[in-house]
Structures are given as C-alpha cells and as structure tokens.
Amino acid sequence: MALNASSNPVRPVIGLTTYLQRAQTGVWDVKASFLPAIYFEGVGMAGGISTLLPPQPVDDAIAGQILDRLDGLIITGGRDVDPATYGADPHPVTDVPDADTRMRDAFEFALLRAALRRGTPVLGICRGAQVLNVALGGTLHQHLPDVVGHTRHQQGNAVFTTSSIRTVPNTRVASLVGPDTSAQCYHHQAIDRLGDGLIVSASDTDGVIEAVEVDPARYPDRWAVAVQWHPEERLDDLRLFAGLVGAAAQFATTKAAQKVKV
C-alpha cells in the first residue's frame, strides 16, 4: 500500500532514533549510530521526511530543542531497555546494559517527555513500545518464554515470525489497522504492568500486549501509538506509518498557524 508523497499537503519532518553500538564496514570497525533503511523508507513512502537522531547526552532543555524542529517522532527497535529503569533485577538473558545503551535509554526517555509535553505525534516500534511504557512508569516481562512457554515471538537468527494480532475496538490502532492483522515479530520481551496514562490497543493469541496508546480520555489532543511488532518489515502495508505522518502533518500545520498569529 504505497502512498504518494504528494498526498499530504505538508511533508512533515519525522525524527527517528538510532542504534549506538559497534559497526563494521569495509576496513572500519567503529562505534556508530545507525538505523536499518527500511525504517526511513517507510516514512518516505508514507509522505514524510526522515531525520536520524543519534543517542547523545541530553537533558529536558536539549530534548525540547530537538523536538521544536520535528513534526513527529519514531522510537525505533533495538537492544533491551536497562531493567534498572523500571526497578527490576536483570534476567540472565536480558541484554547487559553498557554506557551506550544507558545513554540511548536516557535520550529516548527525554525525547518522549518532550514530545508528550508538546503534543508531538509519536510512533513506538518494538523496543519503542517498551520505552514508552517504562517512561510512563510501567514494567516489562524480561523473557517471554518464561511467561508463555514458547519462543515463537523471537525465533532467533534474525528470522521474523508472524503473529495474529487482535485490536481493541474504538482505539486508534484499531482505526489504523482494523479489527485484526498479521504482524512481523521479533521480541523476547513485552509489556507487563501498563504505564500511567496508557491503554492496551492490541494483543496476540497468547494474550501478550502488542500495542498501546495514550488514553484519549486523559490526553484527547495527543497522538502516541506504540506497537510491539515491526511494521517496517512489511512496507506493502504503510497504515501505521501513514497514521503517524498524517498526524505529524496536521501538527506541523497547527505549529505554522500559531507562528503566524504571533
């Protein structure tokens, strides 16, 4: 379902968070900020303009400066969130946090705080759903096989599995993808206790929370959706990217109108 970039009168700028870890290319073996191209290809196909956000030391003021220049935000996939951020001891198979992963955690938490304050539309993908939940005081299941008794959510070796997802009626996710969908999954962690101000908007056949969003009763003017699956792995279905880009275009138009009034 490719979209024509001109279908949005405003092409919003979407910031995408990135990995920070060692990478090899040619003769180089260096610490690098990077992101698989399919993420920003999805944004472009949906009519947005992508800009990449490398993890860096940040406070709320700096995060605010970054968000002032964006119309939308995607918190992307990646390594496990540090369990210390939600008051848990690490599971034996949880990714061991280092200085770089802790910096990414802090960077994304700060961006989310700034986005929610401003009303900047947000889409969380896989780790991004977990970051949103933890940022709002929730917790995570650190290893799903301990909970559901199988490894189908993450087979390993970079092989994505297909999960059957059922959405909750009258949620934003349901309005975007319909009552059910097939999703590409690669996660061994998932949301446990729900963060403050979030509602569940989709689950899979195991009862695992697969999507959350901000509660419209509490945040009627906020667009923040997060899915545990990987929509960028299915660029023939751009509905989630299109939803974010559409919300970001509207946000950009509103910001421009406010500047004119000033």
TrEMBL record:
One of its GO terms (cellular component) is cytosol. One of its GO terms (biological process) is polyamine catabolic process. SUPFAM superfamilies: Class I glutamine amidotransferase-like. GO terms for molecular function: gamma-glutamyl-gamma-aminobutyrate hydrolase activity; transferase activity. Keywords: Transferase. This is Amidotransferase [Mycobacterium leprae TN]. It comes from Mycolicibacterium parafortuitum. The lineage of its organism: Bacteria, Bacillati, Actinomycetota, Actinomycetes, Mycobacteriales.
